[in-house]
Fold this sequence. Notes:
Elements (H helix, E strand, L loop, with lengths): L13 H15 L2 H14 L6 H14 L9 H16 L6 H28 L3 H14 L6 H17 L3 H22 L5 H22 L1
Amino acid sequence: xxxxxxxxxxxxxxxxxxxxxxxxxxxxxxxxxxxxxxxxxxxxxxxxxxxxxxxxxxxxxxxxxxxxxxxxxxxxxxxxxxxxxxxxxxxxxxxxxxxxxxxxxxxxxxxxxxxxxxxxxxxxxxxxxxxxxxxxxxxxxxxxxxxxxxxxxxxxxxxxxxxxxxxxxxxxxxxxxxxxxxxxxxxxxxxxxxxxxxxxxxxxxxxxxxxxxxxx
Length: 216
């Protein structure tokens, strides 16, 4: 294909050859070159009968390049952009649902990466960074399936931070943790983590009461 395609450049046979050339990379699983070649096809043959299929396979190629969540997600953001362009350009396409499903999957992957980052800060005992990361998650992912985890994680991190603070900061941080409990209950009073949250609140209130008694 690499030898044949250049010979027919500018001739009627070039269009189907270019499509097959891009599709060869796609079928071989070389999605980087497939995405690139299908994009070239879309630009070169905007009136082609194969245009929609080429645009779809180009977008899907970038989706296939998205790495596992623990790696850098640059390619995931590129894939989201390419998939959205396809959906915008072909709103009635039979591939629209497939593209929307891929978009949703990639978004959940990004959410999972962010929630795991926040939890990792907690695991390494960087509680301030954990609280900040959970805060950012809540702001950045309002409809996430991991949102309850973020609200609970922030509460837990705030409580443990108070436990590990110098005595002058304990009361202030316990009260901050109690506010995070109130935020949690505002949205997830019927969620599966309610019992754990209430256990933390009980400890917070007990310690605040003890502090109050000790100062009187």
